[in-house]
Amino acid sequence: MLQGFQQQLIDYGFTASETKKLIDSAQLIELPTRHILLHQGQVATEIYLLLEGVCHSAYLTNQGKEFSKEFYWENDWIIGFESLIKQQASPYLLESLTPCTLITLPVDTLRVWREDKHSIYLKLLETQLMHKENKERFMLLYSPEQRYQLFCQNFPHLLDRLNDYQIAAYLGITPISLSRIKKRAQS
User: Fold this and answer.
1) Please, is 47 exposed, middle or buried when counting C-beta atoms within 10 Å of its C-beta (0-12, 13-18, 19+)?
2) pLDDT band at residue 17 under the 50/70/90 scheme
3) Residue 104, CA atoms < 13 Å, CB-side half-sphere
């Protein structure tokens, strides 16, 4: 699995020596379902490339509520840019929702990429910005029914991997609303 990562680094323009250094600092890990990778309030020491599985980040309130921030699946980088830039603790929890295989790299690696303005850092930033704009558009311009339809069209592979509570969280609706939307779609 590290070979695919090695090729990705080469494609981003890393030299052979840079690629070797990154591979040497990378670690392949396998995690069970519901494993916490990062607690809310903890300072991140690693960044991740998700090879297999589904992860989730969520904000936890003092009142015991959970607000879904994001879901991650195969080939997603999981990086807390705000924490990295401000050098502060994570404002959210990060956990695995399914068994996962990830590549971890020290967060210092990303700091070096940032300082050097390396192409992979710029590519990660661009990808994150486009994703955020797409998610904002998704949440603002579409009704809950349309969001569910788009989710089913764009991510059919996730329908069997996420439960209704998790899908509802991704869509920004309650599980009860999702149940009603699904019933209307079946009739």
Assistant:
1) buried
2) confident
3) 14
Retrieve residue 47's tokens: 């960044």
| Sign of the dihedral through C-alpha 164, 129, 15, 24 | negative
Distance CA 17, CA 181 (A): 53
pTM as predicted? 0.84
Q: Which residue has the tokens 């020491």?
A: 45
As a whole number of angstroms, the distance between CA 121 and CA 18 comes to 14
Q: How many CB atoms lie within 10 A of CB 61?
A: 9
List of residues 6+ apart from 141 with CB closer than 8 A: none
Cα 55 to Cα 76: distance, rounded to the nearest angstrom: 10
